Amino acid sequence: MQSSPGTVPATEPVPDTAGSDGAANVRGRLAEIRTRISEAASAVGRSPDSITLVAVSKTVGRPKVEAMLVGGHRHFGENRVQEAASKFPELRARHPDVVLHLIGSLQTNKARDAVRLADVIESLDRPKLANAIEQAAGQEGRLPQLLVQVNIGDEPQKSGVLRAEADAFIEGCMRRFGSALAGVMCVPPADADPAPHFMWLRDCARRHGLRVISMGMSHDFEVAIRCGATEVRVGSAIFGARS
Ligand SMILES: *Cc1c(COP(=O)(O)O)cnc(C)c1O
């Protein structure tokens, strides 16, 4: 093999030098997570295509998000409206088919920005927010897909509608929003076996004929897939630990 010392052909790909947590690692970890999703799905006779991977990019800078986009990934999750507003319009200008999921608890005074920015709002959890989203949708002339967030462990510090109130709230939202009310979402209690919670959410979605079941994060997405998740939200396992 020939080489000419000291010269680098102009076509040589530029190595990723962004450090141990650079964009190349992000692509590698994305491939790894995809494999694990496929394996978890196959283990229970499900098609990997029936599961959407939402890459949770909160606190993650644009270069890593861009690396994912270049690699063909399209679904991203952000938990703060303001951060999403500062990152995504620019990314969307270059990648119009990006799909932005808002996954954080939402104040009513941010509803209009959320409706303008998001493709999916996953944190619909109270009548006041439903009112604000409905009004914002009228003003903006667009209605994102909506998921009802269930406070699956009935934890006082967490957002989400309580389990006991979930059925009535979901029915009300279905009447109000029609097919835009696409499914349900949860974050189970941190130190408990998530499986019973995931199965409760799956059964809840089935009861109401809802197609989207958003559950499972970096540490438990395989369990969630075995329990019927149609969407998993994975952050640190792709992008590295958040500071
Ligand atoms: C941050 C976050 C995630 C991703 O968490 P990781 O543990 O980093 O995968 C998923 N869902 C919600 C609602 C989050 O806030």
Structural class: alpha/beta
Radius of gyration, Cα only, in angstroms?
20 Å
Bound molecules: pyridoxal-5'-phosphate
Low-confidence runs:
1-19
Q: What portion of residues is helical?
A: 40-55%
- Percent of residues in beta strands: 15-25%
Mean pLDDT figure:
92
Q: Please count the beta strands (DSSP E, at least 2 residues each).
A: 9
Taking the sheet with the most strands, its summary is:
9 strands, parallel
Order of helices and strands: HEHEHEHEHEEHEHEHEH
How many helices in DSSP terms? 9
Q: What is the 3D shape?
A: globular
Distance between the termini: 45 Å
Give a nutshell description of this structure.
43% of the residues lie in helices and 16% in strands.
Structure commentary:
This protein is of the alpha/beta class and 243 residues long. The protein is built from 9 helices and 9 strands. Strands 1, 2, 3, 4, 5, 6, 7, 8 and 9 form a 9-stranded parallel beta sheet that branches. Helix 1 crosses helix 2. The N terminus is likely disordered. It binds pyridoxal-5'-phosphate. Pyridoxal-5'-phosphate (PLP) binds next to strand 9 and helix 9.
Write the layout of secondary structure elements.
Layout: H1 23-43, E1 52-56, H2 62-70, E2 75-78, H3 81-94, E3 99-102, H4 111-117, E4 120-124, H5 127-140, E5 145-151, E6 161-162, H6 163-177, E7 181-186, H7 195-208, E8 212-214, H8 221-226, E9 231-234, H9 236-239
Parallel strand pairs: 1-2, 1-9, 2-3, 3-4, 4-5, 5-6, 5-7, 7-8
Helix pairs in contact: 1-2, 4-5
Bound molecules: pyridoxal-5'-phosphate.
Key words describing this protein structure:
243 residues; alpha/beta; nine-stranded parallel sheet; binds pyridoxal-5'-phosphate
